[in-house]
């Protein structure tokens, strides 16, 4: 029975990826929730500019905004099957990116003013639910943009992944970034910050070697 369970788990998450992935998720969650608690009474800056105020609220993009979660989870698991070298580099990039996020959330806490009139309909109701569940803090950089773009950065040059999937991954990452502004969860600076941090973390992770998160290639 135990062996069957291990085999089933192994098909979803390779053994070498399981512990680093769990540590990564715990670290990310701690950074996000912990900084929100620490900065609860602090002054927060609003980076909303004139351009964002001209962009209409598009509640329909709430669907894209929420599709981020299965998109990220699916790719997070997929990357684990690309071999130790790629998987561990991804983990290093994620930990590095979230460390930078934690610093920024503390030294430069941000917020925005959400629209009061969300309109009517299913998408407006869904957006209202998102607003209730997700307070407007820890906005710069956008975690939605960071995480989705980091997955794309990893997958876009993986030849073993079908080209159509890599293209769709890029399109979806772009749509997720657009959705964060369309539903007024983020501003353009948050989007740019998330993308740049994803690219920088992925590049840095290629040079950064952490013994526990570096695949051995000498055997």
Description:
Residues 140-203 form the Inositolphosphotransferase Aur1/Ipt1 domain. The chain crosses the membrane at residues 12-32, 63-83, 95-113, 139-155, 167-185, 191-210. InterPro entries: Aur1/Ipt1, PAP2/HPO_sf. One of its GO terms (cellular component) is membrane. Keywords: Membrane, Transmembrane, Transmembrane helix. The chain has 219 residues and is mainly alpha-helical. The protein contains nine helices and two strands; from the N terminus they run ααβαααβαααα. The protein has helices at 2-12, 15-38, 50-54, 62-79, 84-107, 122-133, 143-155, 163-182, 188-207; strands at 45-46, 110-111. The chain has a two-stranded parallel ribbon. Helix 5 runs antiparallel to helix 7. The radius of gyration is 18 Å and the shape is globular.
Work out the strand percent. Answer: under 5%
First-to-last CA distance: 32 Å
Number of strands: 2
Query: What is the averaged pLDDT score?
Result: 92
Question: Any idea what the radius of gyration is?
Answer: 18 Å
> Shape from CA axes?
globular
The helix fraction, in percent, is 55-70%
Q: Helix count?
A: 9
Low-confidence stretches: none
How does the helix and strand content classify structurally? mainly alpha
Strands of the widest sheet, in order across it, are 1-2
Order of helices and strands: HHEHHHEHHHH
Largest sheet: 2 strands, parallel
């Amino acid at each position: 029975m135990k062996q069957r369970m291990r085999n089933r788990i192994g098909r979803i998450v390779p053994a070498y990826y399981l512990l680093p992935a769990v540590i990564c998720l715990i670290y990310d969650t701690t950074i996000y929730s912990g900084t929100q608690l620490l900065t609860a009474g602090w002054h927060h800056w609003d980076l909303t500019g004139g351009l964002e105020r001209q962009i209409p609220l598009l509640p329909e993009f709430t669907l894209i905004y929420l599709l981020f979660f299965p998109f990220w989870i699916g790719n997070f698991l997929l990357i684990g099957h690309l071999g130790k070298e790629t998987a561990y580099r991804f983990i290093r990039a994620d930990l590095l990116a979230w460390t930078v996020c934690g610093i920024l959330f503390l030294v430069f806490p941000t917020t925005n003013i959400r629209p009061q009139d969300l309109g009517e309909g299913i998408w407006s109701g869904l957006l209202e639910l998102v607003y209730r569940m997700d307070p407007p803090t820890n906005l710069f950089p956008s975690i939605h943009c960071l995480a989705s773009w980091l997955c794309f950065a990893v997958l876009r040059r993986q030849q073993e992944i079908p080209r159509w999937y890599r293209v769709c991954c890029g399109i979806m990452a772009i749509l997720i970034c657009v959705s964060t502004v369309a539903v007024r969860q983020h501003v353009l600076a948050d989007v740019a910050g998330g993308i740049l941090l994803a690219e920088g973390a992925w590049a840095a992770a290629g040079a950064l070697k952490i013994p526990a998160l570096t695949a051995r290639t000498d055997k």
